[in-house]
């Protein structure tokens, strides 16, 4: 049985059903949906949906408030859980929002052939458009959006469950995460929680201990080391954004120190424990290779330039944990693709207006990875003892900057021929223009490929179609 979508007209309303086979047990499928983090995992990447109030634990009566885009305006959508039966189903209804009425039942059914390792995910929505029965404003758009959304949601659910089944451990873990409010960190926290793992986060503000938060302050050299009690793994992602601001001397100091100080503090705290986590995943970046035209992998020596020096010192700062016998993995992360933030989010507006194109010569390498594949890399790094030291966290098909622009334009059905000359890039972006825009490197994920890691979106076009069109890869 493959994915099946059904639309019906019922009285003054409409009914939508999406049904998919899932290669997981009913219990695993239902548990994934009932755990904290499922809402974040099911928000479509191409749509700017904002969570204003999270219902928290799944329970009857819990309410979630979303802010959803409707053309040029935003609409608040309040939904309530009307029924929740663990292992079987739950129902949410619209309290107020963009529809005249909305009732959504999520059902988790056994495999019709009796396979205990398979199940069926079924979403049924009964809804009414605004002003029905006197009008059906936007009915065609709603129908297309539901098709698109639920094809993607069922793929995302199946993909996450496969990752947890194939790359995850055989038991729930306790994982400490820094940078949990950032672009990657927030997604990682949700991904781990839906996989059944306990997540603790290190934060600079006053912590919410009920939410698993602990305080640290790398600038002051302080950390609540109790966060490490019983921890199986630490994933360190914290650091000032490389491209958030123009590079002044002060900004470059902040970028460097936010990485070195935080990593050194965390690694030393781990080393000082009598019982230590098995692994420290300490982020790094492909900037360590510098600007090169030839392909590189993990055996390639570090390059030259300020970013390469920062990345090398960043990795070295984890030495205290390494010397204490902890397995330390440095995912050298490429350009992370998601419309939710980072480089792609900055590129989309000009490309959508037909003003995108190559930067500088366009020949510089652009080594990228989808946000979801990066989450898979981080999970695999936690569980696979073969991964140690540098691991290139990039897709297996890097492209030139010109090739990236051409592919993005194709997916958006826009021209991609408006160049950004180097002199203009330097004028607009200052000192960060050369290392981040005009230079590049073609990176191969050699160690991941040797370990048999499976990329969900190994090609750029496939990745962009998932992120921008909601089209699952073939």
Report what the structure shows.
By secondary structure, this protein is an alpha/beta fold. The chain folds into two domains: 4-166, START domain (Alpha-D-Glucose-1,6-Bisphosphate, Chain A, domain 4, 2-Layer Sandwich), CATH 3.30.530; 170-469, Rossmann fold. 33% of the residues lie in helices and 25% in strands. It has 14 helices and 21 strands. The chain has helices spanning 26-34, 38-41, 139-167, 183-194, 249-271, 306-316, 319-323, 342-352, 371-383, 401-412, 422-429, 433-438, 446-450, 460-469; strands at 4-10, 13-22, 50-53, 63-70, 73-85, 89-96, 101-110, 119-128, 174-178, 198-203, 213-217, 222-223, 233-236, 279-282, 284-285, 327-333, 335-337, 365-366, 368-370, 389-393, 399-400. The strands form four sheets. Strands 9, 10, 11, 12, 13, 14, 15, 16 and 20 form a nine-stranded mixed β-sheet that branches. Strands 1-2-8-7-6-5-4-3 form an eight-stranded antiparallel β-sheet. Strands 17-19 form a two-stranded parallel ribbon. A hairpin with an 8-residue loop joins β7 (101-110) and β8. The longest helix has 29 residues, at 139-167. The two termini are 16 Å apart. The mean pLDDT is 94.
